[in-house]
Amino acid sequence: xxxxxxxxxxxxxxxxxxxxxxxxxxxxxxxxxxxxxxxxxxxxxxxxxxxxxxxxxxxxxxxxxxxxxxxxxxxxxxxxxxxxxxxxxxxxxxxxxxxxxxxxxxxxxxxxxxxxxxxxxxxxxxxxxxxxxxxxxxxxxxxxxxxxxxxxxxxxxxxxxxxxxxxxxxxxxxxxxxxxxxxxxxxxxxxxxxxxxxxxxxxxxxxxxxxxxxxxxxxxxxxxxxxxxxxxxxxxxxxxxxxxxxxxxxxxxxxxxxxxxxxxxxxxxxxxxxxxxxxxxxxxxxxxxxxxxxxxxxxxxxxxxxxxxxxxxxxxxxxxxxxxxxxxxxxxxxxxxxxxxxxxxxxxxxxxxxxxxxxxxxxxxxxxxxxxxxxxxxxxxxxxxxxxxxxxxxxxxxxxxxxxxxxxxxxxxxxxxxxxxxxxxxxxxxxxxxxxxxxxxxxxxxx
Length: 447
Known about the structure:
By secondary structure, the chain is α/β, with parallel strands linked by helices. Helix content is 27%, strand content 25%. The chain folds into 3 domains: 4-56 and 229-298 and 394-439, FAD/NAD(P)-binding domain, CATH 3.50.50.60; 81-106 and 299-393, Guanine Nucleotide Dissociation Inhibitor, domain 2; 121-218, Guanine Nucleotide Dissociation Inhibitor, domain 1 (Orthogonal Bundle). The chain is built from 12 helices and 20 strands. The radius of gyration is 22 Å and the shape is globular.
């Protein structure tokens, strides 16, 4: 292998595949390698056999779950926000031609022991049990303020400066109750914890506007999801890369990352051969995660626990939705982090008919992770089978600009892709030296 590449990409997780696709479109010569024989890495969608092999190597899947090929079970559950950054990337690259999307039927929040729908229209807001009558009026004024805000028109600011005042100041101005702040901050702005309240209000404003504009786009919920599971996303970006000359090698063991005397990246050795390139991008598992190599470290919040559950019924209290997101805000269950539930079904071609796949996840806070997701599991009703996975969260220790080794971050506990895209944008800027700029078009979604 005497060929030299511009970039070698290690791992076919979504982050890596988006980057290889975008770099190929830019005219870079890309070689993409993965030790697995399937696409998706940590963010793959597995069939039944692969799923049982991963979690219970000695057990065959029960026959009553149906055919192997009917399943595409996500290891990392995330939904796509209709007006969000991932949608923009899908549209910009025209990757949408390889994918079909379906809406997620509803977004719910847990409050005072029960599940309530996050209101998607004025009418739903008026009927919502989440707020009392007077609180509904205050919330209406708050949302009207957000929708009416114009940066260049001080008459719309009501004495608030989004770039100086904290979110606490904004909530207090409208007199919103803690419970309302809870569902706005966690179910709409999608924050994992309450740290945002003491920070400037602008990012929260942006997140709420993103949520409400996504909601307005397709109705029922702000989320869309690809048919046949999230594993379709990395595969689609791999196709994009291939069209622009990218080379893919699956099932390739990576023996060594080769550097020169100064520690700068030179190439990758696989099966006794070394391929050379100017830069390498890869997921943390290729850079000595857990060793003292010093390239990656575990983030403060340490680990994510996820439970993949097979159900034979929709989740109770969700209006028999064929798919939904439920957020349990942390202070409802005396935690520091929210618990997320993402559910999909045969409507999305990810499991057999009459089976539902619900995944409960959160950031680990104690030495008993499975107990931490118990409040989420208890909302699911009878569970037919479940697989629990605890994964460390890694982040790179350096920018990569000195050694040309660019490492992506692990997938967090959020139930959407906005943080993944932040990582893509961050790595892109470090690799290319300029911001990622995207074009705007529309995505088609099945009803």
